[in-house]
Amino acid sequence: MKKIKIFLTLLISLIFIPIMVNAASGKISVSSTSTVVVGNKVTVTVTLSGSDIGSWQMTLNYDKNYLQLTNSSAEAGGAVMSSSVAKAISSKKYTFTFKTLKKGSTTVSVKSYEAYAFSDMKEIDLTSSSKTIKIITQDELEASYSKDNNLKSLSVEGYELDKAFDKNVQDYVVNVNEGTTSVKINAVASDNKASVSGAGDITVTAGANVIKIIVRAENGSEKTYTLTINVIDQNPINVTVDDKDYTVIKLRDNYECPNSFSESTVKINDFDIPSCYNDNLDYQLVGLKLSDGTIENFIYTNNSYTKYVEAIGTSIKLIIIDYNDELDGLTKYEEEIDGVKYNVFKTDENSKYYVVYGINVETGKKDLYSYDSVSKTFSLYNKVEAKEIKDLSNLYLYVIIAFGACLFLSIICVISLLSKINRMKKINIELRKENVTKQEKLEEEMLKEEKTDKIEDKKKEDNKEENKEKNTKLKENKNKKKKTAKSKKEENKN
Hints:
The chain is α+β, with helices and mostly antiparallel strands. The protein contains 3 helices and 29 strands.
């Protein structure tokens, strides 16, 4: 009996379990950036998540006065998200791109949503969120940028600053051990939106090394901290060249040889100083450093220093030196090449082509070179070719002068011919006028003669008529006389 009760209890429990199970649940989330500038685009992401999702339908709700939909990953390309799947999924994501239309605050949400489980087609219990987007102007955005361009901390790893760090103090000094070739500078900005440049692993040389650490705030304003790293030299070699104070570089790691030079050493004040040597030039270079850390090359000869400057073209490197002779057809001027002034030869003051005298760094040979200041190229100067070019230029000049003279004479002839043509035109016009006058007079005379002839013809006609009438009367009189005579004759017969 007890076993039967247990069995019935289990059976009832199995029957009513489906009724007691809660319906599946899910959620709809809406996300995007919180702030956007008017006229810019903003992307809104809608995510449907849950378990055993089989089908769904949702509609994105937004204010068209603030947002204009430009792109959608929804099935129909609009605001309606509706689909079903052949296999249960746990999430579905949609993206919508909007163009912001005006300043203000607007909310994007999902409305009219429903989803159904894949396994039993029962409706899923959904919750939905919304996203508020603040639309601001560009000026408002820039006004919101941080102006903080201060450092929070500054240190040199393994060494002490000359004073405690203060964000308002911008100059610091650190003394490091002799022979130090690099230091690590740590600099942290007060604002995590600011950027810092100039920190990190920095190469240093003997003497003063001036390091600029620049903090750039989010709004673009900058602040510069200056850190001077003094690499202590117990026995510095100080020299003065052209009224500038230098320190001779003693460490090879701090001095790099220019191209065409090989590493060497030279004895200065009983120290083996790193140098650079060129066999072709027989030049020994050493590095001298200014107080600001700038290193320059100098030619060292018997405890004398001469600044070494290369004039570099596209394929030739020269050391330009003075040329004491004269060059036919060229005049000496002072011009800059690579920022250094030299004596050069040119055809005229405005010419962009120079002739210089120099030593080829590669070969060590001295010669004259042509220099194109536009393309910055050197080429070997050919005196014969230059003379031929000059002669050809003179020939061209003579041809141009001759052509100009011919052109001038031609212009004079043309002007003279035009003048004659104008005079002939005037004469022709006068003759035409005279001929017209004569013609008019002739026509008048002809008209007069014609009138006279007509008058005479009329008189003749009138005379002819008059004579005709007279003849008619004579005939009539004659006939009358004949009749009278005949009558008289007949009477006499009778």
